[in-house]
Amino acid sequence: MPALLSIALLAGCAKPVDRESPVVPTADTPRLPDGKGGVRKTGNPYMVDGRWYNPIQQADVSYDETGIASWYGRDFHGKATANGEQYDMHSLSAAHKTLPLPTLVRVTNLDNGRSLIVRVNDRGPFVKDRLIDLSYAAAKELAFDKQGTARVRVQTLDIPATAPLPPANIAVTPPVRPAPPQPQPPAATGNIFVQLGSFSSQENARRQQAMLLPRHPETRLMPFKAADKTFYRVRLGPYNHMQMIEQTLQALKQEGFNNPMVIIE
């Protein structure tokens, strides 16, 4: 009965358990989980506290809902998530009752406009009518870790943004590109990138690009100016499909790139 045991352990994800506990800050910018030990799954219908939940069966789902987000942290740090990954409260992950595992979604705090991408790899929350349970790091980036809950909009990455949102004031910004009609799109024309580095030296940036090009021909140099100085971003993309982003992230991690960042521009 491992599935039922897993649900029983995860039922506690519904409440923001650590708002009163001291949290050790991390120096690094929060990243998406690396996916180690995880599997892709949708799951069978399951019951928690007398209520049935029916996981979405198609892997490539279009989802756009608003509701209440909570967060969970230290009490679950290091434990297995519903798809077998390890929960890290300092990475950008989330629990959802029905989305396929894993799924990349954009979460927007409707009270302040902050927005970011998280990896749904867990089940929950099972309290009241909450929509999504975010990791501590995600709640902190969206600036509701102190109050515990927030009104949010949750969107899969491959559906259109149906209403305008304020500009995000962290790394990920709207809009989201619409999904192509085919399950796998042709040449990518979206505005979602995977960034591996930002260099002040063009030579160093070109060196990293040259190392990546044999395996990732979509690698490009993207210069930008800040404080009257030119920097060079090394990015892969653009992509306009969630599965392409997931596959790229996993390939990069297997190649030893531990901190790829998903960027929407």
From TrEMBL:
Biological process according to GO: cell wall organization; peptidoglycan metabolic process
InterPro entries cross-referenced by the UniProt entry: RlpA (IPR034718), RlpA-like_DPBB (IPR009009), RlpA-like_sf (IPR036908), RplA (IPR012997), SPOR-like_dom (IPR007730), SPOR-like_sf (IPR036680)
Keyword Lyase: yes
Gene3D superfamilies, per database record: RlpA-like domain, Sporulation related repeat
Region (Disordered): 19-41
CDD domains the record matches: DPBB_RlpA-like
GO molecular function, one term: lytic endotransglycosylase activity
Protein EC: 4.2.2.-
Domain SPOR: residue ranges: 186-265
Keyword Acetylation on entry: no
Membership in a protein family: Belongs to the RlpA family.
PANTHER family registered for this protein in UniProt: ENDOLYTIC PEPTIDOGLYCAN TRANSGLYCOSYLASE RLPA
Protein name from the UniProt record: Endolytic peptidoglycan transglycosylase RlpA
Native source species: Mariprofundus erugo
Organism ancestry: Bacteria, Pseudomonadati, Pseudomonadota, Candidatius Mariprofundia, Mariprofundales
